[in-house]
Automatic annotation (TrEMBL):
<dbReference type="Pfam" id="PF02900">
    <property type="entry name" value="LigB"/>
</dbReference>
<comment type="similarity">
    <text>Belongs to the DODA-type extradiol aromatic ring-opening dioxygenase family.</text>
</comment>
<keyword id="KW-0862">Zinc</keyword>
<dbReference type="InterPro" id="IPR014436">
    <property type="entry name" value="Extradiol_dOase_DODA"/>
</dbReference>
<keyword id="KW-0560">Oxidoreductase</keyword>
<keyword id="KW-0223">Dioxygenase</keyword>
<feature type="domain" description="Extradiol ring-cleavage dioxygenase class III enzyme subunit B">
    <location>
        <begin position="20"/>
        <end position="255"/>
    </location>
</feature>
<keyword id="KW-0479">Metal-binding</keyword>
<protein>
    <submittedName>
        <fullName>4,5-DOPA dioxygenase extradiol</fullName>
        <ecNumber>1.13.11.29</ecNumber>
    </submittedName>
</protein>
<dbReference type="GO" id="GO:0050297">
    <property type="term" value="F:stizolobate synthase activity"/>
</dbReference>
<dbReference type="InterPro" id="IPR004183">
    <property type="entry name" value="Xdiol_dOase_suB"/>
</dbReference>
């Protein structure tokens, strides 16, 4: 069964503007996707859908959500990612997580930019059904890690599980100069997380604030960090890992992408 198990991927998705770009990062995202078995469907956990309680998109045709400011350019609001939904997968996710975690079958959300800005580059044909799982903003990191573990059976059912966020995500001190050297604290925290992943240290990842000021500066709010915990949880304890792309842009935005096989 392990030989046919789908990998898990955590994408460092960066700015929504990457949707209009073709660069080494987007090309690598595409290469990762081409290296995988074609998924039956994709389950994504995005930094941009936090709720009270847990919900999963359960509509036949999820909308493309443009959840960012107009200042990024009108062209971004024209982008559509018309992948179908998968109501049966939504019900399967609900069954896996309940009764310990009630899950609402959502008909209103869709695919936010944390999902579609990655998938339009990785899976440009938009022909694979996509379902999004929300993150309960009231819960602690350990809880999210455990929820990711509950999703592991999906990997044996042809489902690709994707987390999309950023290890380091501090927009308040970003420098839009692409050539700017990352802050030392951002590099140290990115390396701390990668070390925990390599050692399969889930406790170290969940208790990331033990990394002190490096963590506090790198994760001023946990919305972009938590999707990593779902990916690590779904990856289980028996994986090989690859970091690519693996860099920090704008001094405080980690583009590190992690593939768990």
């Amino acid at each position: 069964m392990a030989d046919s198990r789908m990998p898990v991927v955590f994408y460092g998705h960066g700015s929504p503007t990457i949707a209009r770009e073709t660069n080494s990062t987007t090309k690598t995202w595409r290469e990762i996707a081409k290296s995988l078995p074609k998924p039956k469907a994709i389950l994504t956990i995005s930094a941009h859908w936090q709720t009270r309680g847990v919900a999963v998109t359960a509509m036949e045709r999820p909308q493309t959500i443009h959840d960012f400011g107009r200042g990024l350019g009108a062209d971004l609001f024209q982008i559509q990612y018309p992948a179908p939904g998968d109501p049966e997968l939504a019900k399967r996710v609900k069954a896996l997580l309940e009764p310990s975690v009630p899950v609402a079958l959502d008909q209103r959300w869709g695919l936010d930019h944390g999902t579609w800005s990655v998938l339009m580059k990785a899976f440009p044909d938009a022909d694979i059904p996509v379902v999004q799982l929300s993150m309960d903003a009231t819960k602690e990191p350990e809880w999210h890690l455990e929820l990711g573990r509950k999703l592991q059976p999906l990997r044996d059912e042809g489902i690709l599980i994707i987390g999309t966020g950023n290890i380091v995500h501090n927009l308040g001190v970003m420098d839009w100069n692409e050539a700017a050297k990352p802050y030392d604290w951002a590099t140290r925290f990115n390396d701390y997380v990668k070390g925990c992943v390599v050692r399969k240290d889930g406790d170290g990842l969940a208790n990331y604030l033990n990394a002190g000021q490096d963590a506090a500066r790198s994760v001023p709010s946990d919305d972009h960090y938590l999707p990593l915990l779902y990916a690590v949880g779904a990856a289980g304890d028996d994986y090989k890992v690859k970091f690519n792309p693996d860099f920090i842009i704008y001094k405080s935005l980690s583009m590190t992408t992690i593939t768990f096989r």
